[in-house]
Design a protein that fits this description.
Thrombin, subunit H, 6 helices, alpha+beta, 19% helix, 3 domains, 6-stranded antiparallel barrel, 6-stranded antiparallel beta barrel
């Protein structure tokens, strides 16, 4: 039997069926063929690098909640006839840098910014909603994007307070079974001035724990190699652009969500992309200094 590698949820469900089937009458006998089939299946799944532990990895939820002020909602709006404002998409994002002079950099997914109808920076608006300390939604400026990695960097100015930023950590080499968690938004609410329903910031962003479920997925693009972490944190509409964290540091950004097998672009990809676009030699300056250069970047 040949199975698709990376389909962790199917593998676990099928394994559960095999275990249940082998537990019937006579399964305790050493010569029962069902026991042998189950044992071979377990060995095969382990060789594929999949996690057979059905118990969810332990995540310190209380400590995870401390990072919620860094989570934002990103929603573009389209101005029609100079008066009517219609939202055409929304998602999550997170602060990766913040300064004392009222500026911050937000990272999200490109498809959150572009929406289903596209985004024209000359006429459309890019709005950012913060969890605390900022009563009004702020105007954002799209400064850098990449369609292959599905990432977008947004500059926000005139912030009334300095909010905490999340820090990056490597994610490519983390083993299967490593505990991780998402911080994002998954509730629906009507936004003021808009006439459609979309994902919007709840009172508190959701902490969604899980674990890395398969080896890093690699896809080759025209200018960069995309590496994605497969993980099991439950998520739904509104989570796009959420940070994937391990030990309170960002190891990826959620781009493609699914209940059992989601994918996050690794932070290593984000750093390589910034080095290329900013003209910096690989590994020559710290990540924090690299992100600081975005405040002076002009497209």
């Amino acid at each position: 039997m040949r199975l698709r590698v990376g389909t962790a949820s199917f593998s676990l469900y099928y394994l559960s069926f095999c275990v249940f089937w082998s537990a019937g009458d006579g399964a305790h006998k050493g010569n029962d063929p069902r026991t042998k089939v189950t044992a071979k299946w377990v060995q095969g799944v382990r060789r594929m690098g999949l996690n057979l532990n059905t118990n969810p990895p332990q995540v310190d939820v209380e400590r995870a909640r401390q990072h919620r002020p860094s989570i934002v909602i990103v929603y573009p709006v389209k101005v029609i006839d100079g008066r009517r404002v219609v939202m055409h998409g929304a998602g999550s994002g997170f602060i990766i840098s913040s300064t004392a002079d009222g500026k911050c950099i937000v990272l999200t997914c490109r498809h959150v910014v572009k929406g289903s109808k596209g985004f024209d920076p000359a006429t459309d608006l890019l709005r950012i909603r913060f969890l605390q300390g900022v009563e009004e939604d702020m105007q954002g400026q799209l400064i850098l994007e990449d369609p292959f990695l599905d990432i977008a960097f947004i500059l926000v100015s005139n912030m009334p307070i300095m909010l905490p930023a999340l820090r990056f950590a490597p994610g490519v080499d983390l083993p299967v079974g490593t505990p991780v968690f998402l911080l994002g938004n998954c509730f629906l609410e009507q936004l003021p001035g808009c006439n459609i329903q979309t994902a919007i910031m709840p009172t508190i962003p959701t902490v969604s724990p899980g674990g890395i479920s398969a080896p890093c997925k690699v896809e080759y693009g025209p200018h960069i190699t995309r590496r994605e972490i497969q993980f099991t944190c439950p998520n739904k509409a509104g989570y796009s652009g959420s940070p994937l964290l391990h030990e309170e540091k960002v190891i990826g950004i959620l781009g493609r969500g699914a209940y059992q097998a989601s994918l996050a672009v690794c932070t290593e990809n984000l750093i390589t992309f910034l080095e290329t676009r900013l003209g910096v030699d690989e590994g020559t300056i710290p990540v924090e200094d690299l992100i600081q250069m975005l405040y002076q970047y002009r497209t």
